[in-house]
Amino acid sequence: MRRLHLLAPILAALALLGVSPAQSQVPPTIKLVVGYPPGGSSDTLARLLGQALQDSLKTTVIVDNRPGAGGRLAAAQFKRAPTDGSEIMIAPNALTTVQSLVYADKLGYSVLDDFVPVAKLASYPIALSVPGSSSIRTASELSAWARAKPAQASYGSSGAGGMSHFAGLMFAEAAAIQWDHVPYKGGAPLINDLVGGHVGAGVDTVIDHIEHARAGRIRIVGIFSQKRYALAPEVPTLAEQGIKGLDIEGWFGAFVPAGTPPAVVARLDDAIGKVLADPSFKARLNKLVIEVSYLHSNDFRKLQAAELQAWAPVVRDSGFKPE
């Protein structure tokens, strides 16, 4: 009876937080759900984060790859995941922002209603590149080429309806040019055609382009950013070349299903924040040309809502309809 008496204040406090004693404990196994195959940037980040969280939380953390439909298959399944913190989805804003708008009428979930943002993890810019064999070196030269050779003017992206697709359309509008979009099934085949000179330009993440650019196989004309990227300072921005208003950031975030108690979200947010603040973890990400860009849950939620609002007219005005 005395032991129960001593536990009473603790149980009351947990009740006020909206979490049961069982929920306050770290699950014996945590799954980091990734909607892409092993080897990509989302998967690599998840594996690095999982190793660090395993040490921090003193539990087993595994990466659960569920590829299909550009990440949407995993997101649809994740809606029904447990709400005890045992499953965390690691996703880029290409999925949670752009695809949520493009496929709005075809999804079985709502990003805002069915997922709780835990933390923004890392970010990277979007790059506009040309083949290494091309004579084009600047945004103005690329625009002049597109105007001079309208029949050849085209750009490739890593997929129709993705962030790189719409970034290319935004560049065309800002530069007052017209060019055709060539969708590829992923970043790798796009790079192959860029290197081979089979497509005039390509838009994708700087993560996928930078090493090829440094080796001279392609040339990054500029990044869609207001300032140079700290991890690739040699690459100019489109803004500094006079192409204004293009500031597109790719990022990765951590999410849990709606209904997860606030105390569980806070615990995971705190653990992730500590991992991201570790200099050794930052160094490992930097080698991948990915920059730590942490936002805690509340600020991340605001970013998510603001991005959906900003991208909505871009997607709508493009007239693009997925098949």
List the helices and strands and how they pair.
Layout: H1 2-16, E1 29-34, H2 41-57, E2 60-65, H3 72-78, E3 87-92, H4 93-102, H5 111-114, E4 115-131, H6 139-148, E5 154-157, H7 163-175, E6 180-183, H8 187-196, E7 202-205, H9 206-214, E8 218-223, E9 249-257, H10 262-276, H11 279-287, E10 291-296, H12 297-318
Parallel strand pairs: 1-2, 1-3, 5-6, 5-7
Antiparallel strand pairs: 3-9, 4-7, 4-8, 4-9, 4-10
Helix pairs in contact: 2-10, 4-12
* Rg, Å, rounded: 22 Å
Order of helices and strands: HEHEHEHHEHEHEHEHEEHHEH
Continuous helix count: 12
What integer is the average pLDDT? 92
Helix content: 40-55%
Largest beta sheet, briefly?
A: 10 strands, mixed
Question: What distance separates the N and C termini?
Answer: 65 Å
- Overall 3D geometry? globular
Give the strand tally.
Answer: 10
| Helix-strand makeup class | alpha/beta
Percent of sequence in beta strands: 15-25%
Uncertain stretches of 5 or more adjacent residues: 1-23
Overall description:
- The protein is of the alpha/beta class and 323 residues long.
- The chain is built from twelve helices and ten strands.
- The chain has helices at residues 2-16, 41-57, 72-78, 93-102, 111-114, 139-148, 163-175, 187-196, 206-214, 262-276, 279-287, 297-318, and strands at residues 29-34, 60-65, 87-92, 115-131, 154-157, 180-183, 202-205, 218-223, 249-257, 291-296.
- Strands 1, 2, 3, 4, 5, 6, 7, 8, 9 and 10 form a ten-stranded mixed beta sheet that branches.
- Helix 7 links the parallel strand 5 and strand 6 (180-183).
- Helix 2 packs across helix 10 and helix 4 packs across helix 12.
- It starts with a helix and ends in a 5-residue tail after the last helix.
